[in-house]
Amino acid sequence: MPIDERTLTARYPMLTSIIPEIRQACDLLEQAFRSGNKLLACGNGGSAADSEHIVGELMKGFVKRRPVSAALRKKLVELAGDEGEALAGHLQEALPAISLNSHTSLVTAIGNDNGYDYTFAQQVLGYGRPGDVLLAITTSGNSRNVVNACLAARALGMMVIGFTGAGGGRVGELSHCLIAVPDRETAHVQELQQAVYHYICAEIERRFFTE
């Protein structure tokens, strides 16, 4: 079954009310990637796992195949002949995305030296550039380290997509686009968020890649 808007709302009718925000998020991500920018994603606990999951869907093929360009294949073959051809056949085009949860040594160093509330903001300062997008995932909308990441992102000229439960909290106030799924129970929020980000990843992939 395809991952499309009709399928999403058929399986999760409660998401119909936030389809405009989901479309806006897709447009912001498309604009960023087409401009040579990247996505930074962060969250705590289950939201940390979602952050890494999203990056996994963007940095390699998700629904579609993503063969490398003919130009890159040619360069690899020129460099290494059959070895380069084999490498080209196993690589896939990527949409640049980084999960700020993934850097264990850095996260624990920041947490130990400066405090856990600053783990993501410090990384946003290091990685973020104007035009990049921060995906701020928090079921409550009020996780302090995620709020601080949003503040740092906005100060750097980045776009912020908030991804929360109902209400949006402080992250909602700091977001250029807020996807607040209509539930407040953590497990239910995360279930709906997974459905939404699978759709977004599939839609972005569709806009950039053909089979």
CATH domain topology of the largest domain = Rossmann fold
Q: Beta-sheet strand percentage?
A: 5-15%
What's the SSE pattern? HHEHHEHHEHEHEH
**What is the second-level CATH architecture of the largest domain?**
3-Layer(aba) Sandwich
Short description:
The protein has helices at residues 5-11, 19-34, 46-58, 70-90, 104-113, 119-127, 144-155, 169-174, 186-208, and strands at residues 39-42, 97-99, 133-137, 159-164, 177-180. It has 211 residues and is α/β, with parallel strands linked by helices. Helix 3 (46-58) runs parallel beside helix 9 (186-208).
Strand and helix map with partners:
Blueprint: H1 5-11, H2 19-34, E1 39-42, H3 46-58, H4 70-90, E2 97-99, H5 104-113, H6 119-127, E3 133-137, H7 144-155, E4 159-164, H8 169-174, E5 177-180, H9 186-208
Parallel strand pairs: 1-2, 1-3, 3-4, 4-5
Account of the protein in words:
With 211 residues, this protein is α/β, with parallel strands linked by helices. It has two domains: 5-59 and 94-208, Glucose-6-phosphate isomerase like protein, domain 1 (Rossmann fold), CATH 3.40.50; 65-93. Helices cover 55% and strands 10% of the residues. The protein has helices at residues 5-11, 19-34, 46-58, 70-90, 104-113, 119-127, 144-155, 169-174, 186-208, and strands at residues 39-42, 97-99, 133-137, 159-164, 177-180. It has a five-stranded parallel beta sheet, sandwiched between helices. β4, α8 and β5 (177-180) form a beta-alpha-beta unit. α3 packs parallel to α9.
